[in-house]
From TrEMBL:
Signal peptide: none annotated. This is Histidine kinase. It comes from Algoriphagus halophilus. Pfam families: His_kinase (PF06580). GO terms for molecular function: phosphorelay sensor kinase activity. It comes from the Bacteria.
Length: 360
C-alpha cells in the first residue's frame, strides 16, 4: 500500500478539505449569522445550498479537466472567456429556476415574515452578487489548479528528458575515455616487448585484471571507491614497469572504507596526463600522486613537471580529451559537490591538479 503522504493522496486531502470549508461556510456559518430565534430554516433553504455546492463542484472539475486543457491551453483565449461568461449566465438562471421549482422565495418569506402575505417581487441583489462571486472563485481556483498541474507535468517531462540526455552523454563520454586509456596502455606494453619480455608478460596480466574492472564496473553508474583505488594502483604499477631510474614517484594513496562509492574510472585521466607529460628519458623528473578520504570527502592531487610530446605522436593528437571528458562527467555527476582546480607553476614548470569530491 503506498504511503499516505504521497502527492496523489495529499492532493485528494486538499480537495476534500477545500470543499468541506465551502460547505461549512454555506451551510453553517451563513445561517448562523441570521437572527432566527428558536425557529428552524425551511427545507427549501437546505435544498438550495446543496444544489449550489453540487453546481460549484461541477463547474470546478469541468473547468479543470475539460475547459482549460482543451480550450485555454490550446490558445483559444477568447473562446474560453465566452464560455466562462456563458457559464456564469447559465449558473445564474439555473439558480433562479431551481429556486422557483422548490418555491424558495415563498418559503423564505414565510419564515422571516410569517405575518405578512407573500407577493412575488424583484431579486435580492446582494445575494445574487454573492452567488456570482462564488462562481468566479470556483472558476479562478480551478483555472489556477489546471495551470499548476500543466506546469508540473511539463516539469516532470523536462526532467525526464534532461535525465535521458545526461545518461546518453555520460555513455558517450565513457566510450571516449576507454579507448583513450587502452591506447596508451597498449603503447606502453608494446614498448616493453622490445626491452623486457618478462615485464611485458606481467604487464599483460595486470592489464587483463584492469580490463575486467573496465568491462564490469565501468558499465555501472557507481562503484566502490576501494575498487577504483585498486584499479588506480594497478595502473600505477603498470606504468612503473616502463619508468627509468631518473623518474621519482611520490605516492600517498589511502585505503578507503568499503561503503564509499564513486563513478568508475573518474580519476584515470588525471593519472594518464601525469605519466604522459611528466616523464622524460633524459632529465630528472618527479611525479606526486595523493589520494585521501576524510569523512565523506575525497581529496585527490597530482603534480608533475611538463615535458613536450612529439607533434607526430598519437598521444599529442589526443592531448586533453581525457581531461575535457572528465570535467564534463564531474559537472554531470557531482554538480555543486566537487571542486576541480588545475594549473601550471611557471617557476618550476610544474603542472598540478587538485580535486575534491563530496561522496555523501
Amino acid at each position: 500500500m503506498p504511503p499516505f503522504s504521497s502527492k496523489k493522496n495529499l492532493s485528494f486531502i486538499v480537495h476534500i478539505l477545500g470543499w468541506l470549508m465551502l460547505c461549512i461556510i454555506l451551510i453553517l456559518l451563513s445561517p448562523l449569522s441570521w437572527r432566527m430565534g428558536d425557529n428552524e430554516l425551511p427545507d427549501a433553504f437546505w435544498y438550495k445550498q446543496v444544489f449550489l455546492i453540487i453546481f460549484l463542484i461541477g463547474v470546478f472539475y469541468s473547468n479543470v479537466s475539460i475547459t482549460v486543457p482543451r480550450i485555454l491551453l490550446k490558445g483559444k483565449n477568447y473562446q474560453y472567456i465566452l464560455l466562462v461568461v456563458g457559464g456564469a449566465i447559465l449558473f445564474y438562471f439555473s439558480i433562479i429556476y431551481f429556486e422557483q421549482f422548490i418555491k424558495y422565495p415563498q418559503k423564505m418569506h414565510e419564515f422571516f415574515n410569517p405575518n405578512k402575505p407573500y407577493s412575488p417581487r424583484g431579486r435580492w441583489l446582494p445575494g445574487d452578487v454573492f452567488q456570482i462571486l462564488l462562481y468566479m472563485v470556483s472558476i479562478g481556483l480551478s483555472t489556477s489548479l489546471a495551470l499548476v498541474q500543466k506546469w508540473q507535468r511539463d516539469e516532470v517531462e523536462r526532467q525526464d528528458l534532461e535525465k535521458q540526455k545526461i545518461n546518453t552523454e555520460l555513455s558517450y563520454l565513457k566510450a571516449q575515455i576507454n579507448p583513450h586509456f587502452f591506447f596508451n596502455t597498449l603503447n606502453n606494453i608494446y614498448s616493453l616487448t622490445n626491452l623486457d619480455v618478462k615485464k611485458a608478460q606481467e604487464a599483460l596480466l595486470k592489464l587483463s585484471r584492469m580490463m575486467r574492472y573496465v568491462l564490469y564496473e565501468n558499465q555501472k553508474d557507481v562503484t566502490l571507491l576501494k575498487k577504483e583505488v585498486n584499479f588506480i594502483q594497478d595502473y600505477i604499477e603498470l606504468m612503473k614497469m616502463r619508468l627509468s631510474n631518473n623518474v621519482k614517484l611520490n605516492l600517498k594513496i589511502e585505503e578507503p572504507k568499503d561503503d564509499h562509492i564513486i563513478a568508475p574510472m573518474l580519476l584515470l585521466p588525471f593519472l594518464e596526463n601525469s605519466f604522459k607529460h611528466g616523464i622524460s628519458s633524459q632529465k630528472e623528473c618527479e611525479i606526486t600522486i595523493r589520494l585521501e578520504v576524510m569523512g565523506e570527502t575525497l581529496f585527490f592531487e597530482t603534480r608533475n613537471q611538463i615535458f613536450p610530446i612529439h607533434s607526430d605522436s598519437p598521444e599529442a593528437k589526443e592531448n586533453g580529451i581525457g581531461m575535457v571528458n572528465t570535467q564534463r562527467r564531474l559537472a554531470l555527476l557531482y554538480p555543486e559537490k566537487h571542486r576541480l582546480k588545475f594549473g601550471k607553476e611557471e617557476s618550476n614548470n610544474e603542472y598540478w591538479v587538485n580535486l575534491t569530491i563530496n561522496l555523501a
